[in-house]
């Protein structure tokens, strides 16, 4: 189990990694799922043996409010059907923290509940915001959970120039669920989870 890292260099490295993902050309992605709310693509991850997923959709709201619903804080538990608990363990600055959260079982509990401990960082990007995170090997795993691991992940939220009340939300997710799981089950769950994330978020922003 590692000590807590120095937040400033970790935040900088994380941001640079996400900006690099954001510049990957369209030709490298393959469509995994498409609905009216979002499109999900994937490509082999450079970090582990699974996939890096890219999700994108237009969300009707201003950038700050959307990101407040995504990043660690009081809103996320209210609307994200996958997340079952969340605790902020350390706060470094207003935009930088370590959180522990748990997720519900998926696919008729083929995928059992998971626990994650993530470093989270929110910063400006172009005219909008980037909120990003990476898992840490920190604190003991609680009983009844498998500890998953998020390789660099993040959400870019940029206001649309011709429609400032709408924002383009683009996510990059690469989650290593760990435990004894068939990769096909993980891939099915990831695409569906990302599409549901958009529809749940849109509903929450309308309330």
TrEMBL record:
One GO MF term attached to the UniProt entry: cholesterol binding
Any one biological process term the GO annotation gives: intracellular cholesterol transport
The UniProt record lists the keyword Secreted: no
Domain named START: residues: 10-207
UniProt superkingdom: Eukaryota
InterPro entries, A to Z: StAR-like, StarD4, START-like_dom_sf, START_lipid-bd_dom
Keywords: Lipid-binding
UniProt GO cellular component terms: cytosol; endoplasmic reticulum
PANTHER family in UniProt: STAR-RELATED LIPID TRANSFER PROTEIN 4 (PTHR47006)
Name of this protein: STAR4 protein
Species assigned in the record: Pomatorhinus ruficollis (streak-breasted scimitar babbler)
